[in-house]
């Protein structure tokens, strides 16, 4: 049982990185990125493509992926999503939903329907022995530590830097922020650039840890969303804890019956939404 | 101090005569189609009707109610499964089962709305998707209706095939006419005005005495009824159901496409959109992934460059509303 819970917490680390990308975009510009899951999957495929075509080392691929992701996020927000922002959520939802369909089918066409994974050599089997009966994989541990670093980094960015201040300013009141000389569109583009870095990181890890296949995207989006809502909107540590709760619930569910693991995770989300709509760990002030 | 009260006299635009007479002409041709048309025309009409009704409901929800849902497939699938369960397990004829299934689906929407309404805007959209997934996974684990691999509708055994096809067709036609007529009348009514007021500003509408929560709930339940009807009809016509097909997010994707092409927040939008969708589907669906990439891309382009769709484009060019629900000021 202890092993299941630890596995769940480590899985939660991956979900946390998914969720931070969603949370960041929603927090700064109230934009819901329905294509999030598919963007994670396409990042995984790009990493796999780089590994097979260019023959790069996994670490180099990760380092290369981040700037590409930042630039594409920045441009995507600047050229496309900024046009859809208004009080009406419909245009941005339709655009990201349409993008999700385009990405899924493009991947299907280029790579076929088979799941693929990113080869990490001996890292995939390496483990740390916590006690004679309990070994934890090194890779999941790395992902978990990265999740903590990302959460801490975002929280710090929002609280203590000029970029974070501009994020909070445009989120609180776009017009006033613009009167103070901020370019809201530029701030939005920066936020999406950062969110895309998280998405690329998530895809890179997903490709290493398990497999990616073109139709996986929507379920990743739903896990990210559930983590955000379970944790409570508006605080990154809340999202982190929400992801832990979701990961543990799913693992416990899988432990009892493989057919019901995901369902069990959804159920916890529904119960939380019904009983505590503000999440289990609502923010004091982030 | 004297208080001036200003009377604003608002009148409904007259019921659109030309489109209605065109509709009656269409209806006359359509009713008799089983006697002169080919069997596969009937089948295709039933399928397209399901897409159309589903899209009308999505338009009502998103375009008039301001609730953008990505989870309407929950109700589509439930409608299908209710027809199947009643037919296979209780021996209810699917002809009676179709309307019953729609009503049962609407009843299911009441508890589900309690969850969905805790979320707003974009998160409402994903929340409805989670609900649809939960329903799909639950149904996939109920072995009496075929579990994960689905099952066939056996209730039509012993029913003459031609009679079944004709009846299904006429039911579909009735549903289409009823959907258009009811939505048109509803949106022209006082409640319809209240609904559009909510979409434009919840706070302002509520300050004018509109019961926002109740109105949204009513729309959500009516949309569930319509989606359930579409699903019931679709699976009664296709005779085979599985959780993955019934609760596929593609249903909503097609509805969004139809509404965005035709024009969101306009009654004639889904009518035009369904026609375009039918053409594209008929001629290009063999291209598989390219076809879907095209649909997704077109939806993106429409929402960036032509937000009000083809119906809005025609309105701007000709200045005409073909199915008007507008009210106009008449100064005294």
From TrEMBL, chain A:
Protein name per Swiss-Prot or TrEMBL: Branched-chain amino acid ABC transporter permease
InterPro entries listed in its UniProt record: ABC_transp_permease (IPR001851), BCAA_transport_permease (IPR052157)
Bilayer-crossing regions: 6-28, 40-58, 64-81, 93-113, 133-158, 187-208, 220-246, 258-275
Predominant cellular place of this UniProt entry's protein: membrane
Keyword Transmembrane helix included in the entry's annotation: yes
Taxonomic lineage from the root: Bacteria, Pseudomonadati, Pseudomonadota, Gammaproteobacteria, Oceanospirillales
Pfam families in the record: BPD_transp_2
Membrane topology: Multi-pass membrane protein
Source organism per UniProt: Marinomonas ostreistagni
Entry keywords, A to Z: Amino-acid transport, Cell membrane, Membrane, Transmembrane, Transmembrane helix, Transport
Assigned protein family: Belongs to the binding-protein-dependent transport system permease family. LivHM subfamily.
Entry's localization field: Cell inner membrane
From TrEMBL, chain B:
Spans traversing the lipid bilayer: 17-36, 48-67, 79-103, 168-187, 217-236, 248-267, 287-306
Location relative to the cell: Cell inner membrane
Keywords of this entry: Cell membrane, Membrane, Transmembrane, Transmembrane helix
One Pfam family cited in the UniProt record for this chain: BPD_transp_2
Keyword Cell membrane: yes
Topology with respect to the bilayer: Multi-pass membrane protein
Entry-linked InterPro entries: ABC_transp_permease, LivM-like
Name used for this protein in its record: Branched-chain amino acid ABC transporter permease
């Amino acid at each position: 049982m202890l092993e299941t819970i630890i596995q769940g917490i480590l899985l939660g680390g991956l979900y946390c990185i998914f969720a931070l990308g969603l949370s960041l975009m929603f927090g700064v510009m109230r934009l819901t990125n329905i294509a999030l899951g598919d963007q994670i999957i396409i990042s995984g495929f790009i990493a796999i493509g780089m590994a097979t075509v260019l023959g790069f080392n996994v670490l180099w691929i990760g380092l290369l992926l981040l700037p590409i992701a930042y630039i594409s996020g920045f441009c995507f927000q600047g050229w496309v999503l900024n046009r859809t922002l208004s009080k009406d959520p419909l245009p941005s939802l339709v655009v990201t939903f349409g993008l999700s369909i385009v990405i899924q089918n493009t991947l299907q066409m280029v790579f076929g329907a088979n799941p693929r994974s990113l080869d990490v050599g001996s890292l995939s089997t390496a483990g740390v022995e916590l006690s004679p009966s309990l070994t934890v994989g090194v890779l999941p541990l790395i992902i978990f530590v990265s999740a903590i670093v990302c959460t801490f980094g975002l929280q710090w960015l929002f609280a203590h830097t000029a970029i974070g201040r501009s994020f909070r300013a445009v989120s609180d009141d776009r017009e006033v922020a613009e009167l103070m000389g901020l370019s809201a569109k530029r701030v939005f583009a920066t936020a999406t650039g950062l969110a895309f870095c998280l998405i690329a990181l998530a895809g890179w890890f997903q490709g290493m840890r398990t497999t990616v296949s073109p139709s996986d995207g929507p379920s990743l989006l739903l896990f990210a969303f559930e983590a955000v809502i379970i944790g409570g909107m508006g605080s990154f540590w809340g999202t982190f804890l929400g992801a832990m709760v979701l990961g543990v619930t799913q693992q416990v569910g899988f432990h009892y019956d493989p057919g019901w693991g995901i369902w069990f995770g959804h159920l916890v989300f529904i119960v939380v939404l019904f009983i505590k709509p503000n999440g289990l760990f609502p923010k004091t002030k982030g | 101090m004297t208080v001036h009260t200003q009377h604003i006299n608002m009148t409904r635009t007259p019921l659109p005569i030309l489109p209605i007479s065109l509709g009656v002409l269409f209806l006359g041709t359509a009713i008799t189609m089983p006697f002169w048309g080919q069997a596969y025309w009937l089948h295709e009409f039933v399928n397209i009707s399901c897409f159309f009704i589903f899209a009308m409901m999505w338009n009502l929800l998103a375009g008039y109610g301001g609730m953008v849902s990505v989870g309407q497939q929950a109700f589509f699938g439930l409608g299908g499964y209710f027809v199947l369960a009643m037919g296979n397990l209780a021996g209810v004829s699917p002809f009676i089962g179709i309307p019953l299934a729609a009503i049962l689906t609407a009843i299911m929407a009441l508890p589900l709305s309690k969850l969905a309404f805790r979320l707003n805007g974009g998160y409402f959209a994903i929340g409805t998707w989670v609900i649809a997934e939960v329903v799909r996974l639950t149904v996939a684990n109920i072995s009496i209706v075929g579990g994960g691999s689905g099952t066939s509708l056996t209730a039509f055994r012993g029913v003459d095939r031609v009679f079944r096809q004709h009846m299904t067709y006429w039911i579909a036609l009735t549903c289409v006419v009823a959907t258009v007529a009811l939505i048109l009348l509803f949106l022209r009514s006082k409640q319809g005005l209240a609904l559009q007021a909510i979409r434009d500003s919840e706070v302002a509408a509520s300050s004018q005495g509109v019961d926002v929560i109740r109105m949204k709930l009513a729309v959500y339940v009516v949309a569930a009824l319509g989606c359930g009807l579409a699903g019931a009809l679709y699976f009664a016509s296709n005779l085979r159901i599985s959780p993955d097909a019934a609760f596929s997010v593609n249903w909503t994707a097609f509805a969004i496409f139809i509404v965005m092409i035709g024009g969101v927040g306009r009654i004639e939008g889904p009518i035009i959109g369904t026609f375009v969708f039918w053409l594209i589907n008929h001629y290009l669906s063999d291209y598989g992934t390219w076809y879907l990439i095209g649909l997704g891309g077109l939806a993106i382009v429409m929402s960036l460059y032509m937000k009000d769709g083809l119906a809005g484009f025609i309105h701007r060019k000709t200045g005409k509303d073909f199915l008007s629900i507008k009210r106009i000021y008449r100064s005294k």
